[in-house]
Amino acid sequence: MKTIFKNGAYERVSDEVAETRVKSQGWKFVSKTEWKTNARPAVTVKNTVEAEKKDETLSKKAERRKKLKEKQRPPAAIDSLMKR
Q1: So where are the chain's domains?
Q2: What is the structure's pLDDT at 44?
Q3: What average pLDDT does range 46-72 have in this prediction?
Q4: How does 48-79 read in b/e, with b if 16+ C-beta sit within 10 Å?
């Protein structure tokens, strides 16, 4: 696959088609990165409510982890229990 460009239009085509278009029809070879940034639509969050819900879920998980960590015994206390 090759990426070609002409008059603001980017196309991804097979090697053979690209070769003929560049030689005879005035197309130019461009990098795939240029095609990605210019030809493909930008990815956007369709629903901001879903994004907010995800953030809320992550913060709830962080709170649970914090509470669990507070309940755990410190390493010194565990060592004293193991010596018995």
Answers
A1: 2-38, 48-83
A2: 57
A3: 77
A4: eeeeeeeeeeeeeeeeeeeeeeeeeeeeeeee
